Amino acid sequence: MSLLKRIHRLCKADIHGFLDTIESPEIILRQAIREMEEELEKSARRSAGCEQAIKQLNMRIERWQESIADYSRKISASFDADNHDLAKSFIRKRIELEHRSEEGREKIKALLLELSTLEESRAAQEKEVQAIKERAEIICEERKREQEEDRQLENALKGAGTRSTISDEEVELAYLQELAQREQENAV
Questions:
Q1: What CA–CA distance (Å, rounded) separates 81 from 75?
Q2: Count of CA atoms in the C-beta half-sphere (13 A) of 148
Q3: What is the pLDDT of residue 120?
Q4: What does DSSP assign to residue 129?
Q5: Which strand (E) or helix (H) includes residue 185?
Q6: Over the range 80-100, which residues count as b (16 or more CB within 10 Å of their CB) and which as e?
Q7: How far apart are CA 94 and CA 74, in angstroms?
Q8: Tens digits of per-residue pLDDT, 9-41?
């Protein structure tokens, strides 16, 4: 392995280590939860859109059914008047509306299936978000507890470092011993 590759790996590892120390798990969890909640909102909007489309299609089908009934009366009146060309024209329009109504019903079935799938997915997502929120709360509480324990330990260590554990008698004894040793060295 070349020297440059080793240096590159070392720098990359240092950068990743630095980023790991900067990133706060709580912030990352909160962001993940926000993103999941945004997805839930999008899913809710899609569901509402499906419901609105179903409502509109039902209204159109209802109007088409009214028109079909109206064309049936006109067809009957045309036959009574012995006007077959007009009857054919009304029959064509009635058939067109029947096809539209059937297509609308098929679209409604597809939308209902999509809505059902969206609702199931959203329910699963909501459970997942709730579980993650609970886990995040536990993690945050554990982290706070660890930080408090670290602070208490740090304070205890700081307190131990500021107290003098060396007595004045020990200092006096060491001073006298040092003085005696110097006198012996000077005598020789």
A1: 10
A2: 6
A3: 93
A4: H
A5: helix 168-187
A6: eeeeeeebeebbebbeebeee
A7: 10
A8: 766 666 655 555 556 677 777 788 888 899 999
Output phi, psi for 4, to 5 deg. Answer: -65, -40
Find the angle CA(22)-CA(25)-CA(26) to the nearest 5 degrees.
Answer: 115
Sequential pLDDT tens for the chain (188 residues)? 566 666 767 666 666 555 555 566 777 777 888 888 999 999 999 999 999 999 999 999 999 999 999 999 999 999 999 999 999 999 999 999 999 999 999 999 999 999 999 999 999 999 988 988 888 888 878 888 888 888 888 887 776 555 557 888 888 888 889 988 888 888 77
Token code pair at residue 80: 């009574």
Best CA proximity match to 140, nearest among 31, 30, 33: 30
Token pair 């199931």: residue:
120
Buried residues in 9-24 as b, exposed as e (16+ CB within 10 A): eeeeeeeeeeeeeeee
Rounded distance, CA 144 to CA 49, Å? 43
The amino acid sitting at 66 is: E
Q: What is the rounded distance in angstroms from the CA atom of residue 31 to the CA atom of residue 42?
A: 17
90: tokens are 């009304």
C-alpha span between 94 and 92 (Å, rounded): 5
C-alpha–C-alpha distance, residues 118 and 40, integer Å: 10
